[in-house]
Design goal:
Blueprint (H helix, E strand, L loop, with lengths): L1 E5 L3 H13 L3 E6 L3 H10 L3 E2 L3 H5 L5 E4 L6 H10 L3 E4 L7 H13 L4 E3 L7 H13 L3 E9 L18 H4 L3 H17 L5 E7 L8 E7 L4 E7 L9 E5 L3 E5 L8 E5 L2 E6 L4 H13 L7 E2 H21 L1
């Protein structure tokens, strides 16, 4: 497949773009507002730099990877879809659920695939966990996930990352940086949308949170998604408790694979090899080819946006 890239932040350049190349596909075009950076990277990836996004969309690319800032996801994805390009877009899908719905409808109308970059969908421990839940039965009672780390986005913003400090452009702080991955993982395991959502955040008075806990009430169990960019002390684990067993994936929430899968406290398997972003790219390409795929679909991205919206409503109502 021939990819066009819009948005050349650290995540795009250091994780996704090398994975596209490793997958055997091609990056044939890139574009960004920072022309100097774009021209330099076009040499590194042996591709063409386009002065405008519209110009790149008119080229012979098959799909677009949207790695631009959060507030531009909707605009960039919609333009690609209307130009008949498949889209792999970075999380969060959009800042508004209305925009996410519009992207879903547009992708159907133009008959293109739309995937969302929740890379943990391709984590090997997810299949192990789901298999155990299916084979051993037992009603889920509680799910918990946490992704916390110390971040420099707000303390030392660069030109490329300054948008992380602007309310109307980012849509949140820790919840948008890592919390959406936790939410997507819990929704993926639950296989349904929660009946109720409540949340707590610090600071309470700002959309750009440093810490957030989102509680989701399902029919017969609760899911808790915790995110923070102020501490490294919280284990970034995924845990599911059923009527019979406790399952845990230690260090699940990460940008790399280095985990231990336990059942009732006993280690069952572990892994520390593989490129999870390469797997994400491969799963996206399976979806484009009409095959079964682990990639997060547009509806999955939409559901996460809905939960984040409900979380912010819950916080504002409790003030």
């Amino acid at each position: 497949m021939k990819y066009g890239i819009i948005g050349l932040g650290n995540h795009s350049v250091n994780r996704v773009m090398p994975s596209i190349v490793e997958s055997g596909s091609q990056i044939t075009g890139i574009t960004t507002a920072n022309k100097e950076k774009g021209a330099k990277l076009s040499e590194s990836f042996s591709c063409r730099y386009f002065n405008t996004y519209d110009e790149m969309l008119k080229s012979d690319i098959d799909c677009v990877y949207v790695g631009s800032p959060n507030f531009l996801h909707y605009e960039h994805a919609m333009k690609a879809i209307k130009n008949g390009k498949h889209v792999l877009m970075e999380k969060p899908m959009t800042l508004k659920s209305l925009h996410a719905r519009e992207l879903i409808e547009a992708s159907k109308d133009h008959k293109v695939s739309l995937g969302v970059g929740f890379h943990l969908r391709a984590h090997p421990a997810i299949s192990k966990l789901k298999k155990n839940l299916q084979e051993n039965g037992g009603q889920i009672k509680f799910m918990n996930g946490a992704w916390a780390h110390k971040s420099t986005h707000s303390a030392n913003p660069t030109t490329d990352s300054k948008w992380w400090t602007e309310l109307d452009k980012v849509g949140g702080g820790s919840v948008m940086g890592t919390g959406v991955h936790v939410l997507d993982t819990l929704l993926n395991i639950a296989g349904k949308f929660p009946r109720k959502v409540s949340a707590f955040s610090l600071p309470e008075t700002s959309i750009i949170d440093t810490t957030m806990a989102v509680y989701m009430q399902f029919d017969s169990f609760i899911g808790n998604a915790f995110s923070s960019r102020e501490t490294d002390a919280v284990p970034n684990d995924l845990a599911v408790t059923t009527e019979e067993h406790e399952y845990r994936v230690k260090n699940f929430f990460s940008t790399s694979i280095d985990y231990v899968f336990t059942v009732d406290g006993k280690s069952k398997s572990k892994g520390s090899e593989g490129n999870i972003y390469l797997e994400e790219v491969r799963e996206f390409e399976k979806m484009v080819d009409g095959k079964d795929s682990l990639i997060a679909k547009a509806k999955d991205g939409y559901n996460v946006v809905r939960v984040v919206e409900d979380a912010h409503k819950s916080i504002s109502m409790s003030r």
